[in-house]
């Protein structure tokens, strides 16, 4: 009887150790792989040293880099042919003083002028790079949105106040396809975003924008 109890106790100990090891490994996994919806779109072997995975659309022929500490919000996710829209958010334990959330939209025949007029400061944007395929263009802009006590919004210069939104549009002029990225920065309460680096936020968005590949095989 004593031998049987020892065996049972040993087995329980093994289970506890293995369980602890499993949960430790799960905790070490990046946010993108912990969420099943997000992970289902990622090439898990494509992780870069800068913390991105390769994301592939299941309905449309494009791929792009996806930041590893973000996960897709299921309520915002819509994926169908010729249109996609989804938000991604960082893990809950990220720095609360500065949080990014990102909205992606894939569609056809959207004018960059109309997009940036809606979102950026004075409708301004810059076309900074074309892919090797010269018919693919990248446009980028930014804004600091200020709200008064009545929630009335005023668009201010992000170079002066820091960006609350960084915007990118990647368009394939051959096919009419475009992907729009809106990266939102939430700053500490009762402060502006003046300490947020416009250059850093633009580089973060450009990393994803430059990685977009249309009509993948």
Task: Explain what the structure shows.
The protein is of the alpha+beta class and 217 residues long. Helices cover 28% and strands 36% of the residues. The protein has helices spanning 2-28, 31-34, 36-39, 112-119, 158-161, 198-211; strands spanning 42-43, 52-56, 62-67, 70-72, 78-80, 83-90, 99-108, 126-130, 136-147, 153-156, 165-172, 177-186, 213-214. The strands form 2 sheets. Strands 4, 5, 6, 7, 8, 9, 10, 11 and 12 form a 9-stranded antiparallel β-sheet that branches. The chain is globular, with a radius of gyration of 22 Å.
Which features would summarize this protein structure in a list?
single chain, 217 residues, alpha+beta, nine-stranded antiparallel sheet, four-stranded antiparallel sheet, 6 helices, 28% helix, globular
Helicity range of the residues?
Answer: 25-40%
Helix/strand-derived category reads alpha+beta
Compute the number of helices.
6
| Proportion in β-strands | 35-45%
Largest sheet: 9 strands, antiparallel
Shape: globular
Terminal CA distance? 64 Å
Q: Point out poorly predicted stretches.
A: 17-27
Query: Total number of β-strand segments?
Result: 13
Would you tell me the overall average pLDDT?
84
* Alpha-carbon Rg, integer: 22 Å
Q: How do the helices and strands follow one another from N- to C-terminus?
A: HHHEEEEEEEHEEEHEEHE
């Amino acid at each position: 009887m004593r031998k049987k109890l020892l065996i049972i106790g040993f087995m329980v100990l093994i289970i506890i150790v293995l369980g602890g090891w499993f949960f430790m490994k799960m905790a070490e996994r990046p946010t993108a792989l912990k969420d099943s919806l997000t992970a289902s779109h990622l090439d898990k072997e494509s992780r870069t040293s800068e913390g991105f995975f390769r994301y592939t659309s299941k309905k449309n022929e494009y791929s792009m880099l996806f930041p590893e500490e973000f996960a897709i919000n299921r309520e915002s996710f819509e994926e169908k042919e010729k249109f996609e829209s989804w938000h991604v958010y960082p893990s809950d334990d990220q720095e609360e003083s500065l949080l990014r959330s990102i909205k992606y939209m894939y569609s056809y025949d959207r004018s960059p002028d109309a997009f940036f007029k809606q979102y950026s400061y004075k409708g301004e944007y810059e076309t900074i790079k074309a892919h090797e395929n010269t018919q693919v263009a990248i446009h980028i802009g930014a804004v600091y949105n200020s709200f008064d006590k009545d929630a009335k919004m005023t668009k201010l210069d992000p170079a002066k106040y820091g960006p609350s939104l960084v915007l990118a549009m990647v368009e394939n002029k051959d096919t009419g396809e475009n992907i729009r990225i809106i990266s939102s920065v939430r700053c500490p309460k009762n402060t502006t975003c003046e300490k947020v680096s416009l250059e850093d936020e633009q580089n973060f968005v450009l990393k994803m924008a430059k990685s977009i590949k249309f009509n993948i095989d």
